[in-house]
């Protein structure tokens, strides 16, 4: 019999408990052992819960029980989660966490501690909710040189953008609905301002490229500036506005991670991933590209990934199975956003005649650096898309547009199809 504990009885933690009792026979058969939920740690009281007798407010109760094999951490935040998990790992207790903030900040230390004590630190639920991505990236794609990862990694913002476009819902109403569904973070600015997606791309970058990528080193911009006009213009140009988290490997071996709203052409299936769904594109030298899609947030979808990690930890008790990455030499490894070469989606301030606009731009843009007018692949809704440019070329183009009296309402990078 293998005993486990759950830290945090919020959306995800209560989902883990619910899923365990719902599918217990199946879970035990997959784990190859009978299992028992020993404790639920939470500072709140749940006197009416059917599991009331399992609640404890002290990690020491759990640490003192020699029968505990795995601890699932669903509390969120760096502390006290980090201290608790380090204490577990130091005693040889494996951990399974859904906590992206913790792994993005402290992953290297936790993984090293797991290795040192012959146990595992699993974090499948920390990126993409229900989507299997950590284990596939670490194991199934292990033979590849990864060149790029692009993804919708935040369900709340994808849900909001989608509701604004399809239902004409206001930003505030869409956010309130996402919160009601249990998708949003306790502090919704973590979703809206891109920090949640940033933590997740840090985890994927660290895993794919072997060096810890800290959130502070990643350019991050959220969706607050996106308007219905942007969404409609993107739609008219055969694409969609999505909050994209990405990391690209540069020719010199450094990586460029970032989070920002991007125009995604409909040729790329990511543009059609709506609602709370996430989608991650991984490009590797052997696979070309692979896509991983599914529910990126929510109680049972996220609990599914945590429970899978618990099963894995039970099955591989005393075997080091989790991945790790180094915390050394990371300083010169990250390129800044100014090195990004990308096309531009430009929307002008007022509705203008598309043909006249195109003609004016063609005239204005002649001699604008290496910009060529025929790089404009589409013009509609007083918006256009350019071919890929360096920052110097982008600045030059924007200056030229300003000189010619055209007011740019908003521009955003174009994701390659
Ligand atoms: N707030 C997160 C999201 C939850 O919306 O994707 C899952 O990490």
Care to describe what's here?
The structure is a single chain. This protein is of the alpha/beta class and about 425 residues long. The chain has three domains: about 1-125 and about 300-315, Rossmann fold; about 135-295, Dihydrodipicolinate Reductase, domain 2; about 340-415, 2-Layer Sandwich (Alpha-Beta Plaits). About 35% of the residues lie in helices and about 20% in strands. It has 14 helices and 16 strands. It has helices at about 10-20, 25-30, 60-65, 80-90, 100-115, 135-140, 155-165, 170-180, 190, 195-210, 230-235, 300-315, 355-365, 390-405, and strands at about 1-5, 35-40, 55, 70-75, 95, 120, 145-150, 220, 240-250, 255-265, 275-285, 290-295, 345-350, 380, 385, 410-415. The strands form three sheets. Strands 3-2-1-4-5-6 form a six-stranded parallel β-sheet, with helices on both faces. A hairpin with a 2-residue loop joins strand 14 and strand 15 (about 385). It is elongated. L-homoserine binds near residues 129 and 155.
Bound small-molecule species: L-homoserine
Helix content: 25-40%
- Please provide the count of β strands: 16
Strand line-up across the major sheet: 3-2-1-4-5-6
Strand content: 15-25%
Largest sheet: 6 strands, parallel
Give the C-alpha Rg: 23 Å
**CATH level-1 class of the largest domain:** Alpha Beta
Q: At CATH's second level, what is the architecture of the largest domain?
A: 2-Layer Sandwich
Question: How far from one another are the termini?
Answer: 50 Å
Tally of separate domains? 3
What is the average per-residue confidence, as pLDDT, rounded to a whole number?
A: 91
Number of helices: 14
Give the uncertain stretches in residue-range form. 367-377
Kindly name the structural category.
Answer: alpha/beta
């Amino acid at each position: 019999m293998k005993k486990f504990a759950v830290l945090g009885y919020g959306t995800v933690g209560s989902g883990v408990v619910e899923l365990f009792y719902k599918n217990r026979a199946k879970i035990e058969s997959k784990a190859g052992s009978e299992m028992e939920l020993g404790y639920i740690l939470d500072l709140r009281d749940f006197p009416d819960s059917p599991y009331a007798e399992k609640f404890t407010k002290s990690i020491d109760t759990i640490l003192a029980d020699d029968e505990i094999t795995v601890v699932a951490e669903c509390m969120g935040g760096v502390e006290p989660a980090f201290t608790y998990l380090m204490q577990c790992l130091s005693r040889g207790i494996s951990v399974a966490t859904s906590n992206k903030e913790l792994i993005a900040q402290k992953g290297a230390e936790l993984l090293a501690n797991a290795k040192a004590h012959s146990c595992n630190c699993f974090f499948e639920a920390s990126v993409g909710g229900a989507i299997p991505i950590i284990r596939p990236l670490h194991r199934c794609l292990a033979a590849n040189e990864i060149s790029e990862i692009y993804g919708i990694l935040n369900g709340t913002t994808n849900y909001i953008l989608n509701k604004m476009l399809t239902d004409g819902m206001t930003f505030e109403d869409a956010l309130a609905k996402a919160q009601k569904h249990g998708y949003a973070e306790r502090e919704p600015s973590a979703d809206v301002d891109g920090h949640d997606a940033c933590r997740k791309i840090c985890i994927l970058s660290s895993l794919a490229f072997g060096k810890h990528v800290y959130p502070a080193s990643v350019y991050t911009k959220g969706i607050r500036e996106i308007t219905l006009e942007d969404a409609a213009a993107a739609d008219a140009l055969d694409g969609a506005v999505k909050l994209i988290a990405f990391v690209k490997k540069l020719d010199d071996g450094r990586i460029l991670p970032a989070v920002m709203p991007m125009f995604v052409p409909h040729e790329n299936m990511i543009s059609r991933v709506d609602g709370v769904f996430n989608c991650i594109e991984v490009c590797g030298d052997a696979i070309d590209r692979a896509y991983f899609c599914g529910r990126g947030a929510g109680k049972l979808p996220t609990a599914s990934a945590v429970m899978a990690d618990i099963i894995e930890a039970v099955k591989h008790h005393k075997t080091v199975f989790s991945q790790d990455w180094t915390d050394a030499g990371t300083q010169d490894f990250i390129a800044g956003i100014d090195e990004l070469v990308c096309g531009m989606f430009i929307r002008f301030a007022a509705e203008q005649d598309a043909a006249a606009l195109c003609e004016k731009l063609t005239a204005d843009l002649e001699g604008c650096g290496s910009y060529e007018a025929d790089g404009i692949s589409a013009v509609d809704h007083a918006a256009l898309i350019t071919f890929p440019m360096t920052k110097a070329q982008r600045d030059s183009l924007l200056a030229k547009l300003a000189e010619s009296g055209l007011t740019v309402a908003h521009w955003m990078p174009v994701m390659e199809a």
